[in-house]
Specification:
404 residues, 12 helices, 18% strand, binds nicotinamide-adenine-dinucleotide, binds sulfoquinovose-uridine-C1,5'-diphosphate
């Protein structure tokens, strides 16, 4: 990794928006450990969603204040904390002016596809929170910190599942004898995934119009619990979602196996996505920060390390369960989503490797340890939260208090 210095040789300052969340917390600690000066910005709305929907992380998590205190007492390193909503521009402007970031890593969005499909108000909230939050970050960079590099978390789901190879952000097309390199077509399939498409367009435009430097990390589905830093103390433990709204495929399957619930394959199970270990999320973000985009450049990286279908994941978890003496069954659940269940999928993901990413591929050992974590915390599992409860087809205007 190149030298982590900002202006005048001082440590590079990184603002981590969404730094209390799953990817953000792991990243904030990793960057702090690597001697970046870190400020977390978060309005803790993710903890509120849990309360509102009656959900909880598999792992017990400390308050953000105790997390940061614990980190300071273990390492002597300070992480600044700014509690507030990035949709509130005055708040965001103050954090920019006081912290003066060299890079902003933006994780701070509503990130669940099912949440965005609960009812009209959640769909509107998701797009308002995500699109306006990102617009405010772009304006704050332009106004107060125009050299600052934006590292924005996007999603592989922006591309959908086209019947051709997926490139990294751009595709060169020859049409009626003329050739151009154009943004890769976007075919997102939830109001959440669409919010990321809208963000990408807004960022691309401001790179062109104002010379913003930005990297869009089109991340695949993240799995895993521990990173070197979050494993240092119980109070640093990361969240781990297994419920039908916020839980993601592989993490959910491990918890389901641990409690003897059949693995919930939606529909035919041929849905193929890119996946990565949370230890690679933190590595990729550090690589993007250490190798910033040029002024005016809108750079897109596909951030995942391996592709799996849902059926393949279920088979891997079944095998890992057998080794631990657990019998794992699979059930085909009627698909609550509208998505292709059998399709071609071949997505490029070479740019982060070229920058030096050393992937942690999904190994038997990792699956064993994930299953063991799930077993360790299995008394905390609420079986009522496992089955999917949000239907893409049934979304309507009637507000729903619980997802069920
Ligand atoms: P998370 O919900 O655990 O964390 C998001 C954090 O952002 C939360 O702490 C939340 O309180 C905060 N936040 C949301 N809106 C905010 C606002 N308006 N102002 C301030 N803070 C706000 O999500 P995560 O799993 O850590 O995902 C982080 C990012 O990575 C998201 O943008 C997500 O779309 C992207 N991503 C996640 C995955 C995954 O598998 N988890 C995969 C691909 C991309
Ligand atoms: N699926 C099942 N069974 C389950 C859960 C999911 O079959 O119990 C299927 C889904 O139908 C889907 C696939 O697994 O086809 C992935 O679903 P997911 O819930 O693991 O992931 P997704 O909704 O796509 O969203 C997650 C994160 C989101 C991120 C995205 C990356 O919540 O923030 O953007 O992964 S990607 O999928 O590459 O777009």
């Amino acid at each position: 990794f190149p030298q982590e210095t900002g202006e005048a040789g001082s440590p590079k300052k990184v603002m981590v928006i969404g730094g209390d969340g799953y990817c953000g917390w792991a990243t904030a600690l990793h960057l702090s450990n690597r001697n970046y000066e870190v400020a977390i910005v978060d309005n803790l709305v993710r903890r509120l969603f849990d309360h509102q929907l009656g959900l909880d992380s598999l792992t017990p998590i400390s308050s953000i204040h105790n997390r940061i205190r614990c980190w300071k007492s273990l390492t002597g390193k300070d992480i600044q904390l700014h509690i507030g909503d990035i949709c509130d521009f005055e708040f965001l402007a103050e954090t920019f002016k006081s912290f003066e970031p060299d890079a902003v890593v933006h994780f701070g969005e509503q990130r669940s596809a099912p949440y965005s499909m609960i009812d009209r108000s959640r769909a509107v909230f998701t797009q308002q929170n995500n699109v306006i939050g990102t617009l405010n970050v772009l304006f704050a960079i332009k106004e107060y910190r125009d050299e600052c590099h934006l590292v924005k978390l996007g999603t592989m789901g922006e591309y959908g599942t086209p019947n051709i190879d997926i490139e990294e952000g751009y595709i060169t097309i020859t049409h009626n004898g003329r050739t151009d390199t154009l943004p890769y077509p976007k075919q997102a399939s939830s109001f959440y995934h669409l919010s990321k498409v809208h963000d990408s367009h807004n960022i691309a435009f401001t790179c062109k119009a104002w010379g913003i430097r930005a990297t869009d990390l089109n991340q695949g589905v993240v799995y895993g619990l521990r990173t070197d830093e979050t494993a240092m103390h119980d109070e640093l433990c990361n969240r781990f979602d297994y419920d039908g709204v916020f839980g993601t495929a592989l993490n959910r399957f491990c918890v389901q196996a641990a409690v003897g619930h059949p693995l919930t394959v939606y529909g035919k199970g041929g849905q193929t996505r890119g996946y990565l270990d949370i230890r690679d999320t933190v590595q990729c973000v550090e690589l993007a920060i250490a190798n910033p985009a040029q002024r005016g450049e809108f750079r897109v990286f596909n951030q995942f390390t391996e592709q799996f279908s849902v059926n393949e994941l279920a088979a891997l978890v079944t095998k890992a369960g057998e080794k631990l003496g657990i019998e794992v069954k699979t059930v085909s659940v009627p698909n609550p989503r509208v998505e292709a269940e059998e399709h071609y999928y071949n997505a490029k993901h070479t740019k982060l490797i070229e920058l030096g990413l050393k992937p942690h591929l999904l190994s038997d050992a990792l699956l064993d340890s994930l299953l063991n974590f799930a077993i360790k915390y299995k008394d905390r599992v609420d079986p009522k939260q496992i089955m999917p409860s949000v239907s893409w087809r049934k979304i309507g205007v009637k507000p729903k208090t619980v997802a069920v």
